[in-house]
Amino acid sequence: MVRDVVENERQLYGVTTGFGSEANVPISAELAAESQSNLLSFLASGAGRALDGAHVRAAMLLRANVLLQGSSGVRQEIVERLVHFLNAGATPVVCALGSIGASGDLVPLASIARAITDHHLAPRVMVEGRCLEARDALEQLGLEPLPLHPKEGLAIVNGTSFSAAIAAGCVHAARYQVALAFAANAMIVRALRGHDEPFHPYIQACKPFPGQRLAAQIMRRLLAQDPEPEPSDRTHVQDRYSLRCLPQYFGPIVEDLRRIERVVETEMNAVTDNPLVDVDTGSFYQGGNFLGQYIGMAMDDLRRLLGLTAKHLDVQIALLVAPEFNHGLPASLRGNRASSVNMGLKGLQITGNSIMPMLTYLGNPIVQHFPTHAEHYNQNVNGLSWGAANLAAQSVELCSHHTAVALIFAVQAVDLRAFTLFGHYDGRAMLSDEVSALYTAVYETVGRSMDDRSALVTDDADQSLELWLAALAEDLARSSSAVFASVEEIVALLGELPT
Question: What contacts 159, CB < 8 A, 6 or more positions away?
Fold first, then answer.
């Protein structure tokens, strides 16, 4: 169909016309292929640092997925070239700045297109840890240059695949961050001798939001093994809001996270270039599926959810360290109270406090600030999905560091509470099997042997919390994370939102 348009010199945007505001400029059949190459040339305009290679690989996969659906008018060879690069571990170096999510992620996707075709302005390519010129990378992969046919350059660059790829990684990580927040809260409820009553099904039935019901269900499951079902010395009638209102606080987060997941899943599998080819009717349709508004708004929302999750944990930490509110735990969760020089986790709380405001700041929306002057006012509304998704990636990283702080506090607190109740420091005596798995993963990740004769942090000078935080953050950045593995079942529950 595309060849027929060119051979018969019919007018079709981006095939026999110029691009964007130059759509009224005719392109002859003789120049139709050259126009595609030139498209990649004028889009060689990225800026900033190199993007994380994992995002680039995800974008290549999603672009192949789009093109395979048969509405883009490209040869199978284009898809095969993307797949060949992926399977060979060849990743183009793409700049982190350059998309407004309007006609899709034009500039970053063009970097991929130039690399896989051996365009003369191709970026470098990472192959097995080596940074190669694109021509050398192709030679190492046993591939020849791949000249573009009419429409193929436009089909590769026109769409939201890059924004959606980054968003998918952020959503995946966010599910684990929320799951860890639930597990950490289970430790904190036990450490603060909290009541189980706020999670009772009857309360949730009286306010039957699906997210609230699921949040309470998760907490009941995580608190299933209560070591002291009727503690005689528990003097507080009910808990402070951060414990008692946990289902109501996390309910909207759980619901919004599931909604965001559905948005990203839909975008990942959508055909987002222009024009689209309907092979059943023989028609071309010119539209705007490339606008990144869905992803942009979803990532604005995701950053807000991550900030709210960290904010709640920060409030819980404040309760844990204050003798006025922690029901008998030492100030700042000091491990060795026999030594007057020990100050406990004071410095760690300051670190957590420093991260949390940055997370809530990143929760501010960017999509509503779109520029109105791009490309001769052709792109006069913009999805800003690229900026929103990249900011979400920053939020995920910050949230991992804050989670690392919160996990040390939670484990230290249950160790100290176990001592007050049972005379030893094995916090697992306070926890269900599921939460014990996270407790154990934290100990193992920081390289500390479990010893019921001392808490996780005993004397201040015994360990560098900086090294522990770095170890936890590094673990949380890996897909094979031991800490993540300990909450897999909670992550699965988060995907089963009741109706």
Answer: 63, 66, 104, 105, 109, 271, 272, 273, 289, 290
Q: Which amino acid is at 300?
A: D
Residue 27 DSSP one-character state: -
Name the token pair of 167.
Answer: 């968003």
Contact between residue 350 and residue 356 where contact means Cβ atoms under 8 Å apart: no
What tens digit of pLDDT does each residue of 186-201 get?
999 999 999 999 999 9
Please say whether the beta carbons of 236 and 327 come within 8 A. Answer: yes
d(CA 266, CA 260): 10
Element (H, E) at 30: none
Token pair recorded at residue 370: 């779109």
Judge whether 212 and 204 are in contact, CB under 8 Å.
Answer: yes
Annotation marks residue 202 as catalytic: no
Give the mean model confidence (pLDDT) for residues 256-274. Answer: 96
Pairing of strands 47-50, 276-278: unpaired
Interhelix angle 106-117/134-141, nearest 10 degrees: 50
Long-range contacts of 445-451 (CB under 8 A, 24+ apart): 445/471, 445/472, 445/475, 445/482, 445/483, 446/408, 446/471, 446/472, 447/471, 450/426, 451/425
> What is the pTM assigned to this prediction?
0.94
Q: How many CB atoms lie within 10 A of CB 309?
A: 25
pLDDT score of 236: 79
Helix-then-strand count for the chain, H and E: 19, 7
Q: What is the pLDDT of residue 76?
A: 96
Lowest mean pLDDT among 164-168, 371-375, 397-401, 485-489: 371-375
Decide: 91 and 126 in contact? Cβ < 8 Å.
Answer: yes
Is residue 316 a contact partner of residue 405, using CB atoms and an 8 Å limit? no
- 145-148, Cβ contacts within 8 angstroms, sequence gap of 24 or more: 145/117, 145/118, 146/77, 146/78, 146/81, 146/116, 146/117, 146/118, 147/33, 147/37, 147/117, 148/33, 148/36, 148/37, 148/40, 148/113, 148/117
Whether the Cβ atoms of residue 162 and residue 55 lie closer than 8 Å to each other: yes
Tokens of 477: 């950045």
Catalytic residue, chosen from 13, 176, 294, 439, is 13
Q: Both ends of the chain: CA-CA distance in Å?
A: 45
CB 56 within 8 A of CB 123: no
pLDDT in tens, 425-453: 999 999 999 999 999 999 999 999 998 89
Contact 329, 419 (CB under 8 A): no
Q: How confident is the model at residue 499 (pLDDT cuts 50, 70, 90)?
A: low
